[in-house]
Structures are given as C-alpha cells and as structure tokens.
Amino acid sequence: MKPIYFDLDFGITCIDTRHMRDDFVAAYLIEDNGCVAFVDTGCYLSVPTLLATLDEKNIKREQVDYIILTHIHLDHAGGAGALIKHLPNAKVYVHEYGANHLIDPSKLRAGVIGVYGELFFKQFLGDLIPIAKDKIIIAKDKDEITLGSRVLKFIDTPGHARHHVCIWDEKSRGIFSGDTLGVSYREFDTEQGVLIFPPTTPIQFDPDAWKNTIQQLMTLQPKYAYLTHFNRIEFTQKSAAMLATHIDGFTNIAKQMQGHVSRHKAIKEALLDYLLEIAGQHGVTLDKTQKIKIFKGDLEICAQGLGVWLDTD
What is the pTM of this model? Predict the structure, then answer.
C-alpha cells in the first residue's frame, strides 16, 4: 500500500486515512528528536495506511511514544486498538469520559451501529479492538507531555462532544483540534480563504459550550489548526467568528424545524440549502452536484446531532 501524506513543517505530517474518500479524514504524525506521536488514528480500516506511512518515513514502530486521541468518534479513534498492537512502547491519551469506551468498546460499537447501521459499520469502519487499561492515560485539562524537545498541552474542549480534548503545540503555534475548530475541505478554498462549518454530530453537541471553547482556544493566539477534516489551515479570529456564526446558523435551522412532521428530513434539507448558500457566498465555483457530493458526508450525521440536541436541550 502506498500511503498518501502531506509533509508539513515543524516535524508534522498529515496522513490521509482514506476513510470514505480522499481528503476527508486525517491523522497526524509528530516527529521530534527521534520521538514520535500519532494524533488521531482514523478508523480500524485506516491502520494499514498509518503503518505504511511509518515504513515510508523509516520510522521504527518502537519509536512511537503516544497515540493521542482528540475524542472517541470512530473516524478519529476507531483504529487505536488495532494500531497499538503494532506499537510496543506507545500509550494512548484520551479524555476521561472516553477511556472506558476504549477498554470495553461494546457500548460504543452498539451506539455507532444504532446511528449508521451494521452494514455501514462493517464496510466503512471495520471493527473495534479493546485497549488494555494499562495502555491508557487520562488526558486532563492543562496536562502536558514531552515529545522530544516540544511540549504538548491538553485542553478540555466540550461542544462537539463532551469527551473532546484539543492539543496545543507551542512549537508550531498550532492546535490539533479534532472537530472542535470545525471542518474545512480544501475543495472549498477560494480567494476569500477557507470555508469552515461545524460538525454537529450526536450525541453531545452543545452549542453554548462550543462557542465558549472557541473563545478559550483563541486566547492562545494560534497560527494553525490541524483539522481532522481536513489538513492544516491558518486559523484566525475571522475563522473563529465564521465557525461560531455557522453554529448559530445550524441551531436556528433546528429550532425552526422543531415541530415539523418530518423533522429529520426537513433539517437535513434545510442544512443542505444553508451550506450551498454559504459556499456560494464564499465564491466556491464547483457546480451544485460537486458541492452536494462533498457536503453529503456530513449532512446526515449533522442533522441527527441537531435532532438529539432539540430533544435534550
């Protein structure tokens, strides 16, 4: 297997995990003075790509010290149990609310199948492998770990999910943000910059907490966000404002459809209209069919998340 990856500066590599399509889900590799860490892993089916990247870069598997998970959604963490079997010295860092689901993934598996269906789980996610308890370390807010000559700092970042952490890398002035700083696909880049919108995934979407988290992260004055969806972008106050605006836009749609007889369908259709409109305003020149194809990967899950939020808010 020939992996697809992007060598960035500061010893950071963005790996395309090839989940669903190219340029959709990333994992990151950080190298510093012979020490190595993965940030997120993609799903179980992504593990061969991650291992092939190590081989391509002549990195021994014994050099990997950490697997750092931003949160336990399977497009970010589903491969951790399979990956660590190949990394004898690695430990897994994860939010305390996610740790037990890695040790015993049965509830996580059932929840994912409940949302996506068993066929999707097997075809696109593959499997979930438990991780031994002694391989897991809780990533608490403000905890720091050393990787070579750099320090990585964990920040508790609720909003997208309660079990979400971001990782601040002072060396690159970048945030490994999982889903907290939104999704932004390179096909939508224009002269206006990047287009960012929120993945409102079930079941713990909390818009107020999310906007507070964004404000907290911006006090770091980051230069970059290392997005799982997809790749590194420059992240500015304008970026933060755009994301907050679209969190409000998504929740307003959900509220408007609250009493609709076919609420989920109505939310999903209104979200697509909203996304197509903001893409047009952003100067995206792809035709409508191409835009819909790219947005399609997020629509269903965002609509489901908004529905859960309406029912629990």
Answer: 0.96
